[in-house]
């Protein structure tokens, strides 16, 4: 239970109002009567922050004094979502704020809606980082999240004639009340130049990096409050600034533009989040970003978090650096460089420390998603690091040759340096070789990681590999996002589930209680009405009452197979308009898509265009009598997810088996009482095992079957020829029905499916259609459906990110919660 913090505002309605008005007057410089909604939001955010402040300072002091091991979470992305609601929840201020604002004639919901979410991530990986730091704070575990303060986060998606158009995400424009910049604590980051050898005082050969340019990293701190426990951890995001703002001689010579060019150049580094989330483009700026935040973070931890006289030989006793995918892996040679070139360690000493300080999480199975940096680029930007990487590789190959004498092929396979198509550094191999532990993000994924992505490494170091199945924070995604369900749960089993999610099990018996089911269904209805209001205001979309709400929200990717979902919709539609299916036999259904496509990913953008055209045509066709609607609200983000997921009946998790590392949306849906239609992929496997086959609609090939079909040769066109229902659906698209008669508008999408279909959508089509029929059958039996939904909630407690964090702590980090 939260208590009034020392030195904070009084924990009462009165105290709150005083603080709020004070912030409005002194920080915003306006009177309440003259204040805008934005003024009010900013004042409210500062007020809540003030309540957390004493706890934050306290947490920092205690952690420092205790000299305990800290988790340094290194992630290029944090997809935080709005901060205000979470801060209110964590500090138990909801009721007080609600009443206080009412006294001021204001409405909390309106002010909350004023916040622009910090979208500093692309999707699952960034959101996972945000869930993990929430759990660590809640579990009282010391953690510093390190990342980049992008000036522009993930683009704002708009649709123009059904096509995606990207707008810059100006999340900082209306003020940023949650951040604390510390320009005084800036650190310098070097780039370029060359290296030189020299002999030190003891006559040992050493290396010197002589960089030729540098930038400053300015830290911005953000609070990461634990849930009602008084702990506030820190998220430290770095912003790039020029070391000298101004080239005075150039300026004096009259070339103003040239004089400030250096500044623009430096600040570009943290300007924008790259919106690609699976195909690394090998862009120089991205490598600059990666090294920038990693160099800042290591410097910061060593110089500012440790005692001045700390012996870095024991660095692993004070930090474990978790590498969130390969994006921060350049930290490995950076730590080696610091220890050797700056602290005078010899190679073996430095390597011994380094290999104890890193752990690596892989988030993919797609070969093209593994980062390989061209040595030409890496050597130009970070010459010393490339030297170190070469030396690490020599050591690796020596170890391999020793373990497998004569197996030169293996040595070549395992080399950190790839030779084709150009010479490059395989960051995943570097991470795997350097890390104490390597983990995948769901049981199936970790298995495939061992067997298919890193087989030679897992054979040589089997104990290094482990699995930690992802999780999501129940605070944001149940307690905050689904207040009605949360109330029902707490009324039924008490409030302990919020920090001990396995306790949801206690709901199981209530699945058979008609009274409980009625209340459960009422909460779902309330969520649907709330969503309808949001979509009406936000997108001008009308959600009909009483429909099965069928939701597929995630990044747009061929492997995730939005096109398979779309084919099902088109097929239902085609059957009705061709008279094969009486319209009254159609289950009233609204299909909601939410997805951003990487701006350069043509096929994904074409698919978005097609979904929008189908949505417009289907939703407007009177022959369907309003029984099938397709909605595609633009700009799916965390804020919308918090409204969409609690309202959903059906969760679409339909990736080709063996492609989705884990998925985390799948967990959020199950925890909010949606049933899943899904393949045996990623964490779906574990969801199905836990909720039970009867309460999960499984379809499609499993991973071995996919591999088998691939090996035998996959011919998508044969499925088209052999399946009249599939043929009719594709033919309807080809006929120009959804494109105003243009028969070629969607050729790229359709012929990609017919001729290539890398992710085998056509092969799984019939199975998917059959599973959808089972969905409709269950949905027709309201009691049976609700019963399944309750059991999904009751049995999904495993998917709390608190549990994930417990596993990392016990098996990978070996850190302790603080008392
Ligand atoms: C290198 C660059 C192009 C890049 C940038 C972002 C590559 C990948 C990403 C993001 C990947 C990502 O979000 N992966 C997802 O991670 C989730 C959390 O583990 C998984 O649940 C999900 O299956 C996986 O696709």
UniProtKB/TrEMBL annotation:
The protein's required cofactors: pyridoxal 5'-phosphate
First-level EC class: transferase
PROSITE patterns for the chain: PHOSPHORYLASE (PS00102)
GO biological process: glycogen catabolic process
Family matches, as InterPro entries: Glycg_phsphrylas (IPR011833), Glyco_trans_35 (IPR000811), Pyridoxal_P_attach_site (IPR035090)
Keywords, ordered alphabetically: Carbohydrate metabolism, Glycosyltransferase, Pyridoxal phosphate, Transferase
GO cellular component: cytoplasm
Modified residues (N6-(pyridoxal phosphate)lysine): 668
Domain of life from the UniProt record: Bacteria
Protein function: Allosteric enzyme that catalyzes the rate-limiting step in glycogen catabolism, the phosphorolytic cleavage of glycogen to produce glucose-1-phosphate, and plays a central role in maintaining cellular and organismal glucose homeostasis. Phosphorylase is an important allosteric enzyme in carbohydrate metabolism. Enzymes from different sources differ in their regulatory mechanisms and in their natural substrates. However, all known phosphorylases share catalytic and structural properties.
Record family assignment: Belongs to the glycogen phosphorylase family.
UniProt protein name: Alpha-1,4 glucan phosphorylase
